[in-house]
Amino acid sequence: MVWQMTLKHKVRINVGIVSSNRSEDLQPERYRILTTKSNQMLSSLIYGASSIDETIRRIVEEHVKVHYEWLDVKLVDVKRYVIEEDSSHEVAIYYVAHVPYQIEKLKGKWITLKELIDKEEKIDEHFYKILSHSNSF
């Protein structure tokens, strides 16, 4: 008998691109994170033979003008979700990448820690985890 394993999980890479203004003493205004225009985390599913590193590079280079090799990218969290629409599974892998404060943004919008805290709508809990890991840069 031959056992076959089917792919039961999609893999989604989420990247929190964070910048901090070291001269800013006000903590809530010091950090900012790049989001989509609808305040979602930057992410992409891994397709085909793409690696995690290639996917992170694509996300970063699509949103900010930076040489990817210069970035220090750190793993923040891994979480497994059940997608309600079709009961399929997804593994979400969360990373943080710190960029200089004056970096040129190509796509998306910056949101400060204060704006994130003040938001009335529910946001992804991983924004907070990513920002908390930013202190280690």
Give me a quick take on this structure.
This protein has 137 residues and is an alpha+beta fold.
How would you characterize the overall build of this protein?
It is built from four helices and six strands. It has helices at residues 27-30, 52-63, 113-118, 126-133; strands at residues 9-20, 31-35, 42-45, 73-83, 88-99, 109-112. A hairpin with a 4-residue loop joins strand 4 and strand 5 (88-99). The N and C termini lie far apart (52 Å). Mean pLDDT is 80; it is low at 1-6.
The structural class is: alpha+beta
List low-pLDDT spans.
1-6
How are helices and strands ordered from N to C? Answer: EHEEHEEEHH
- The helix content, as a percent range, equals 10-25%
Can you summarize the main beta sheet? Answer: 6 strands, mixed
Helical segment count: 4
Strand tally, please? 6
- In whole angstroms, how far apart are the ends? 52 Å
| Residue share in β-strands | 35-45%
Q: Which of globular, elongated, flat, extended, rod-shaped describes the shape? A: globular
Mean pLDDT: 80
Rg on CA atoms, Å? 16 Å
